Amino acid sequence: MNIEPCVNSSFSKGSALVPVIALVLVVILLPTAPGLAAQTYSRSDLVRFQHRIVDYRSRINPRFKKRVRPKTRLVIVHTSELGLKSTLRVVSRGKRFKNGRTTPGGHANYVVARNGTVYRILDKKYRADHAGLSMWNGISDVSDISVGIEFVGYHYAPLTTSQYRSAGMLLFILKGAYGLQNKDILTHSQIAYGRPNRWFSENHRGRKRCAKNFDRIRAGLGPTWPFDPDVRAGRLTPDPMLAQVFYSAPGAVVSTGKKAPQALASDVISKQNSAWAIAGEDYAASSTVYVLPGGKTLAGDRVASNWGWDRLPAGTKVLLNQETEQVREQAKSTIKMISGRMTAWSHAGGAYHAASTIYFLPSGRILTGRLISDWDDLPSGTRLVVGYKGPFNVTKYKTAYGIAGVKFKDPGTIYHIPGRGPVPGNRVPNFSDLPKGTGVYLPIAG
Question: Which residues of 189-227 are buried (b: 16+ CB within 10 A; e: fewer)?
Fold first, then answer.
């Protein structure tokens, strides 16, 4: 997670003259920078884009020590695996681990929100601590030579059209500022590597799945490298899934003696989609939570001792960057709640915009997924149920029993009671006195 666009470190939302001068310089640089795509943005487009960047630099953790990057050879794109509010907090203020350890922030230069808004976390000239254990073309610690951009979203879910539109302009500016080519824009999953573990006996690719869903064409970029230079040179062992995603062209080094698994866009374990394929090195982290069919939850650092990796059943959901107790409480209830780390996508996946996903907003409004433009638009405190139909209104002539039958008291039958919000049937105190306007929601599968 880390990002930032800008041709001059003194750019700010309140400055009109500096962006114009800098953008003129970008235009002048373009013809002399080999490999750059033809200009596709007008000067006015770029000026407007620069002025709309939200300056978030004042929020950086005071513990973070700014250090100017001596050279810039790459731009690395990430997916945050969180919603916007949590993403901004983590990249600017730092990460907090279960054991009490913290980081000083500065984990990105820029953040691109789902609606396309760009936040400048750290001036592009400074080194952001975003790449971690990394290598590209023989150079270790890629944070030393790269700008980091964080996209709000998940690596197994699509980024938005607005994000790609902003990415195109931001990358255009950065390429011009540093004389970079299209192939110098890479994803975190391409450059991260890991130490030996239960899946690999040597140093290997695949430590991160971050931004493996990044669509270069939609961001206005040409092809990436046709091969992994560190795998080809024998410095690292390839990750079969990532090799299939990025380097499936003829001549690419992809073989590890095993059949490469299908690159699934899913956070659910199956025969083809292992914990490693979904979470990378975070598979055993305390902040990775496994929700088994039936609702049992396990933190990643407890799976081996309390359950066993080979016993995780198909259908187990993998959630990154979570707090185990919070997920455990959510798993017990049919009615889910959006909170800091638990987004609508965390709860519903791609069904977040289905007509059968019902949202109960803190304001009292009730919306179906069809009316939701994006999962990150919903406020914290919103409650939801997935796979439901309704409402069926209780009236003088239509009782709860008349609507739900013998299941009218079941926890899976949901009542929206005015002034109380959604309530499961087993928590309704008095069915004979349900107020006017009470709506009943029934599970489609039931």
Answer: bbbbbbeeeebbeebbbbbbbbbbbbebebbbbeebbeb
pLDDT tens by residue, 248-275? 754 444 333 333 333 445 889 998 888 9
84 lies in which domain range?
A: 17-246
pLDDT, position 1: 47
List the beta strands (DSSP E) in 255-400: 289-291, 297-299, 317-319, 336-337, 357-360, 366-368, 383-386, 388-393
Residue 256 pLDDT: 35
Q: Do residues 294 and 278 touch, judged by C-beta distance below 8 A? A: no
What would the two tokens of residue 225 be? 């490298």
Is pTM beyond 0.90 here?
A: no
Query: Residue 49: which of 20, 29, 10 has the closest Cα?
Result: 20
**What is the count of structural domains for the chain?**
3
Residues 6+ apart with CB under 8 A from 432: none
Q: Report yes or no on 129 lying in a domain.
A: yes
Residues 316 and 357 in one domain: no
Beta carbons of 416 and 391 less than 8 angstroms apart: yes
Task: Name residues whose C-beta falls within 8 Å of residue 365's C-beta, 6 or more positions apart in sequence.
Answer: none
At 261 the pLDDT is 36
Q: Is the residue at 259 inside a domain? A: no
Q: What pairs with residue 405 in β-bridges?
A: none
- Whichever domain contains 156, its CATH number is 3.40.80.10
Could you report the per-residue pLDDT of 102-119, keeping only the tens digit for each? 899 999 999 999 999 999
Residue segments in the chain with a per-residue pLDDT below the cut of 50? 1-39, 250-264
Same structural domain for residues 82 and 201?
yes
pLDDT of residue 277: 87
42 in the same domain as 190: yes
